[in-house]
Design brief:
Helix content: over 70%
Radius of gyration: 21 Å
Number of domains: 1
Number of strands: 0
Number of helices: 15
Largest sheet: none
């Protein structure tokens, strides 16, 4: 393998954020393996899950490409040493790759949705590709909107499994809603996956604000109206602290409920997660430099990985016979 070919390959891997894609895959794999696999009947067996997960990964990769495509000037200011487009990869190749990845992702999702007689499920993938496009071209530069869009897309990494599994439906208890969309059977996994989706949403929102705090110079130069630019760094820190409390309190409640129901290991793991987020919040409030916000962003990603690990603890706790 030539040095030039190796360098080109590494440039493409950096462009599509291969580490983030690996995290997305692990999240979906553990959610499916540890929570859904033992439910019957299932739509997602190994081939179907593989196609659905690959579809998610390709859409995310396309999203990273289009984001960098429109953010070259901002990245030149915020992280000049990490810019890939134009230097290693021509912008024309990038936009072609973006289109091809999205097309392949929709085809893979169709291979799952159409045999299941639910082509409408494809609207989820179409919606994600459109959101990523408008995020890169418009929403990212708007106050709060861009952060919420990214957080919502992060939660969809888990919620897509709920959409593609008809067994994971919620029983509607409110008469007006029940009259509108009907009544569905209750299933425990949907509540578990919904809880994970909630925390994915909250932690991603927190991290996006911190990244905006880190990138405030480049964003301001390009006319972005992020929270740190419009409201200031102090307001952004306190707003992020409020979001962290909205994550910590439910986690503490969940830990207590698990403990009272004799789920000791899971309760302890959840308590560690609550402590980790609390410690991170204190850390965030104690610094003001660009490097400090960069470290806070990295530490929060580590906490997200801890959260993904709880899938394994859940599996070992509820299905000890399968685990051994």
């Amino acid at each position: 393998m030539s040095i030039e070919y190796f360098s080109k390959t590494m440039a493409w891997l950096r462009l599509i954020r291969w580490k983030n894609l690996l995290i997305i895959f692990l999240t979906q794999l553990l959610a499916w393996w540890c929570i859904i696999l033992f439910e019957e009947p299932r739509v997602l067996d190994i081939p179907q899950f593989s196609m659905l997960s690959l579809s998610t990964i390709l859409i995310a990769a396309a999203g990273y490409i289009i984001n960098d495509y429109f953010d070259i000037k901002i990245d030149m200011v915020n992280k000049p040493g990490k810019v890939v487009l134009e230097y290693a990869i021509p912008r024309k190749q990038a936009i072609i790759a973006h289109s091809m990845l999205n097309a392949a992702a929709l085809c893979l999702a169709a291979c799952v949705a159409i045999p299941a007689h639910h082509p409408e499920w494809l609207l989820l993938q179409v919606g994600c590709t459109l959101l990523l496009w408008f995020y890169s071209t418009k929403f990212k530069r708007q106050y709060i909107t861009g952060n919420v869009v990214v957080a919502f897309l992060a939660s969809l990494t888990i919620l897509v499994l709920v959409v593609y599994e008809p067994i994971l439906q919620i029983e509607i208890h409110f008469p007006l809603v029940k009259k509108t969309i009907g009544n569905y059977p209750t299933s425990l996994p949907v509540w578990i996956l919904a809880a994970y989706a909630y925390f994915a949403f909250m932690l991603t929102w927190m991290r996006e604000i911190v990244k905006d705090m880190e990138d405030i110079k480049g964003d301001a130069a390009e006319g972005c109206i992020t929270m740190p630019i419009k409201k200031g760094l102090e307001f952004s820190r306190h707003f992020t602290t409020a979001l962290s409390l909205l994550a910590i309190v439910p986690i503490c409640i969940a830990s207590f409920v698990l403990f009272t129901h004799n789920y000791g290991p899971m309760s302890l793991y959840v308590a560690v997660l609550a402590l980790s987020i609390s410690t991170w919040t204190v850390f965030l409030l104690r610094g003001h430099s660009e490097r400090h916000y960069h470290l806070a962003s990295r530490y929060l990603k580590f906490i997200m990985l801890l959260g993904i690990g709880s899938f394994i603890v859940y599996y070992l706790q509820l299905y000890p016979n399968y685990a051994t």
